Amino acid sequence: MKPTILIVDDEKNTREGLKWSLESGDYEILLAANGREAYDLFQKHPVDLVLTDLKMPDMDGLELLKKLKADDPQVAVIMLTAHGTIENAVEAMNLGAMHYQTKPVDLKELKIKVAQALEGRRLAIENEQLKSQLSERYAFHNIIGRSPVMERIFQIVRQVAPTRATVLIQGESGTGKELIANAIHLNSPRARRPFVAINCGALAPTLLESELFGYEKGAFTNALKTKPGRFEVADGGTIFLDEISETSPEFQVKLLRVLQDQTFERVGGVAPIKVDVRVLAATNRDLKARVAEGKFREDLFYRLNVVTVELPPLRDRRDDIPLLVESFKREFAQANNRPELNISTKAMQLLQDFDWPGNVRQLRNVIEGLVVMNSGREVAPRDLPPEISRAQPAKGAVHLRLGMTMADAERELIKATLAEHDGNRAQTARILGIGRKTLYRKMEEYGLS
Question: CA–CA separation, 31 vs 343, rounded Å?
Answer without folding.
Answer: 32
